[in-house]
């Protein structure tokens, strides 16, 4: 992880018309900590894996993480190949805009804002509930979930206001702790040869992988990777963007894919192929903690419950950093008010964008609290459903943009990087998107009207990009411009 004792000053805010940039010396390790923390590994293992097993393809569910990782690897090949040709740190909207034009770029920017606002809000609701549950479980007072959420909002706002190095150090510590406890559980299960049925072989058996509802399993698996794609948003703060961003992207994807597959397989092995579905269905929220108590001890189970909370906080902080940098970039390109694109003279941080992000999160949680929504069954499930569909839409558009950009410009003539891999990624993501849309009511807590409404919201945001491009012709005008260094084609 990169460390900087005295961050370089940001671009002064007093120069009219100048594009502000963030600064930093983040290496691949620091960025990996940031994006893997957003994926919330312990939260996925303790929360999504049991649901994927129960509602998806049972003991064959761990294979869905392999499938998801392969599809996202195809996406990552084109995504990273285009990194050196994209001039700013706008991530998805910069890539889509560069490849498909300003209308598509601005539409994807709006979808990205909605997606990251909702996924952050989903975790805010969940962490408030979980902290109250943890405190009352140890004999403490029961308080409204939104009071705990307000505490996390404040702490996240303070860290997001400061230099990115501080957040990366906090995330590094929390991530090592949550991954460590799960690896201890994995090692204990493997070391004891699994449960009564031994180590599971369902992972490599086609009949097990295709049993039940593999489409639903894949849907939950792909949701566990949300966050890894945000590496490019830290471009301006990376030590060497053209090398750091691709390395961080591949490393994050590999770590997440291997970790999820191994841990899901360990959970299946602990209970056995014939019993795991029944166990996961009976207690989806507690099966992993119960497994830890059985194979490692009650102390490990208690530690895991605490780290579950810190895992959610790490995800919140990471999503806050990503969202604030989207707001910052959109302020710089004229889509949002120019004040959002200002950087702090001392902390070299997007301080105004960070404050805006905190305010939006606070407002969203206040609305949810006043409406009396359940923090898990409604806030978490509804908002996470919107975010899952939105992120897959963005990745699909990015794959298409890569193919179109390289076919049009000839800047990268390598077939694998410019055509085959992103093309395969687009096909895979399109199939996943169909699964998500078909099951959107399920992601939205079983409500068809809410599922339809979420789909309409995202579609309207994407379409609004073309209207915004016409209404504000100077907004994000650099989206279709490649960097000057790209004048010579690659061989």
Automatic annotation (TrEMBL):
Per the record, where are the segments of Pro residues compositional bias?
1-11
The main location is: membrane
Bilayer topology: Multi-pass membrane protein
User: Could you give one GO CC term from the UniProt record?
Assistant: membrane
- The region called Disordered is annotated at 1-21
Q: Which InterPro entries match?
A: AA-permease/SLC12A_dom, APC_superfamily
Q: Which UniProt keywords apply?
A: Membrane, Transmembrane, Transmembrane helix
Q: What is this protein called?
A: Amino acid transporter
Organism of derivation: Geodermatophilus telluris
């Amino acid at each position: 992880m990169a460390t900087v004792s005295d961050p370089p000053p940001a671009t002064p805010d007093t120069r009219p018309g100048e594009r502000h940039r963030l600064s930093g010396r983040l290496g691949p390790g620091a960025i990996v900590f940031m994006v893997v923390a957003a994926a919330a590994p312990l939260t996925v293992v303790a929360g999504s894996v049991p649901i994927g097993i129960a509602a998806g393809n049972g003991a064959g569910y761990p294979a869905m993480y392999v499938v998801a990782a392969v599809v996202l690897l195809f996406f990552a090949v084109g995504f990273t190949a285009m990194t050196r040709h994209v001039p700013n740190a706008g991530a998805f909207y910069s890539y889509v805009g560069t490849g498909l034009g300003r209308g598509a770029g601005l539409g994807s920017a709006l979808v990205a804002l909605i997606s990251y606002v909702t996924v952050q809000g989903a975790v805010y609701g969940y962490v408030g509930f979980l902290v109250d549950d943890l405190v009352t479980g140890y004999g403490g007072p029961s308080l409204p979930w939104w009071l705990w959420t307000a505490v996390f909002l404040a702490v996240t706002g303070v860290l997001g206001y400061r230099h990115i190095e501080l957040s990366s150090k906090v995330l590094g510590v929390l991530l090592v702790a949550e991954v460590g406890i799960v690896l201890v559980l994995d090692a204990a299960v493997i070391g004891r040869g699994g449960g009564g049925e031994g180590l599971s072989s369902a992972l490599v058996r086609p009949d097990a992988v295709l049993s039940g509802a593999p489409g639903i399993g894949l849907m939950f698996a792909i949701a566990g990777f949300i966050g890894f794609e945000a590496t490019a948003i830290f471009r301006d703060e990376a030590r060497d963007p053209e090398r750091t961003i691709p390395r961080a992207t591949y490393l994050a994807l590999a770590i997440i894919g291997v970790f999820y597959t191994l841990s899901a397989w360990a959970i299946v092995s602990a209970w056995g192929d014939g019993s795991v579905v029944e166990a996961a269905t009976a207690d989806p929220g507690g099966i992993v903690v119960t497994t830890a108590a059985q194979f490692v001890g009650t102390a490990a189970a208690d530690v895991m419950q605490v780290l579950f909370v810190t895992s959610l906080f790490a995800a919140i902080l990471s999503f806050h950093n990503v969202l604030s940098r989207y707001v910052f970039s959109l302020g710089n390109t004229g889509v949002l008010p120019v004040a959002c694109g200002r950087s702090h003279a001392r902390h070299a941080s997007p301080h105004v964008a960070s404050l805006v992000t905190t305010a939006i999160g606070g407002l969203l949680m206040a609305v949810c609290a006043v409406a009396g929504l359940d923090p898990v069954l409604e806030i978490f499930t509804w908002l996470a459903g919107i975010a899952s569909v939105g992120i897959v839409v963005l990745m699909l558009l990015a794959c298409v943009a890569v193919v179109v950009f390289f076919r049009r410009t000839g800047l990268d003539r390598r077939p694998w990087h410019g055509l085959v891999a992103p093309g395969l990624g687009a096909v895979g993501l399109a199939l996943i998107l169909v699964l998500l849309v078909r099951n959107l009511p399920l992601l939205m807590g079983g409500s068809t009207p809410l599922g339809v409404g979420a789909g309409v919201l995202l579609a309207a945001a994407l379409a609004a990009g073309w209207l915004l491009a016409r209404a504000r012709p100077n907004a994000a005008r650099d989206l279709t411009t490649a960097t000057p260094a790209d004048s010579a084609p690659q061989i």
